[in-house]
Every structure is written in structure tokens, then in C-alpha cells.
């Protein structure tokens, strides 16, 4: 298979929701996604109406490119993800952008089913 490079500026799929969007490309059979979450974005108000449930049930593994994301797990524990950090989130959480800067993250595979009703 030949080498590949793709840009998020021309995503193969884009999912928009209140105060945010996910851009997806496929490389070597894997979905790579970039989240763009604006100040005011919160999972429980922006994505929950699309997917249902009480909390996000996607396991995320990614890298924060910009901004900060506050995460509250179902067990009550909390964490703050900041630009420059790699992160892992287990299913069962709510999250929101903290501060005035958009949160931008890149994830492998974990966004393939994000913000879809199936």
C-alpha cells in the first residue's frame, strides 16, 4: 500500500453539534478524528441529545492540541486535560470546555462512532 497523508482541512466526514464538531479521515483502515470544541460546549447539552444516555460511553485515547477540557467521571472523580497532554478517558463521563480557548484534540478510532445515533 502506498504512503498516505490526509488533512483535517478536507475531512472525509464531519459531524457538527452545538458549539463543536468532529472531523474524520481514514488512514490504513483506521479512523482518525479531530475535535473542535468551542467555549460553552458540554457533552451533556451538545452530544447527549444525539446519542442518549446519562454520560458519554465512548472510551477516548488522544492528544490535546489546544485548550482545556474538564472531565467529570460517573464516580465523581474529575480531571483537567490541557494542551500538550496525551489522555485516556474511560466510558462514563461528562466533559466541558474550560476557559475562553477552544479545545482541539486528535484521537485514533475512538471518534469513529462519536456523536452518532447508532
Please give the structural blueprint.
Blueprint (H helix, E strand, L loop, with lengths): L12 E5 L2 E8 L2 E8 L5 H4 L1 H4 L8 E7 L1 E6 L4 E5 L3 E4 L3 E5 L5 E6 L10
Antiparallel strand pairs: 1-2, 2-3, 3-9, 4-7, 4-9, 5-6, 5-8
Main features:
9 strands; mainly beta; 118 residues; globular; six-stranded antiparallel β-sheet; 2 helices; Jelly Rolls
Report on this structure.
By secondary structure, this protein is mostly beta strands. It has a single domain (13-108), classed as Jelly Rolls (Sandwich). It is built from two helices and nine strands. Strands 1-2-3-9-4-7 form a six-stranded antiparallel sheet, with no helix packed on it. Strands 6-5-8 form a three-stranded antiparallel sheet, with no helix packed on it. A hairpin with a 2-residue loop joins β2 (20-27) and β3 (30-37). The longest helix is centred in the middle third of the chain and has 4 residues, at 43-46. The protein is globular.
Task: Describe the structure concisely for a colleague.
The strands form two sheets. A six-stranded antiparallel beta sheet has the order 1-2-3-9-4-7, with no helix packed on it. Strands 6-5-8 form a three-stranded antiparallel beta sheet, with no helix packed on it. The chain is built from two helices and nine strands, in the order E-E-E-H-H-E-E-E-E-E-E.
